[in-house]
Specification:
- This protein is an all-alpha fold and about 60 residues long.
- The chain has two helices and no strands.
- The chain has helices spanning about 10-20, 25-60.
- It is elongated and about 55 Å long.
- The protein starts with 9 loop residues before the first helix and ends with a helix.
């Protein structure tokens, strides 16, 4: 597994660590899950956008 260096404000990191502690997970697990959710949401948004664009194009071409 690769290691990645990420910089963030101390206050934000403290919130991340607090949440990880509450959820009994490591900081890395929490950040990986957050990124998975972000990518999943982004992918759904891109699919919806492509579908809307296809509908608009279809209406224009009629």
């Amino acid at each position: 597994m690769a290691k990645v260096l990420v910089t963030m404000p101390d206050e934000f990191l403290n919130k991340v660590d607090g949440l990880a502690d509450v959820e009994k997970r490591t900081r890395s697990e929490l950040i990986r899950e957050a990124l998975r959710n972000y990518m999943r949401r982004l992918s759904k948004s891109q699919i919806e956008s492509a579908s809307k664009n296809a509908q608009l194009l279809d209406e224009i071409l009629k």
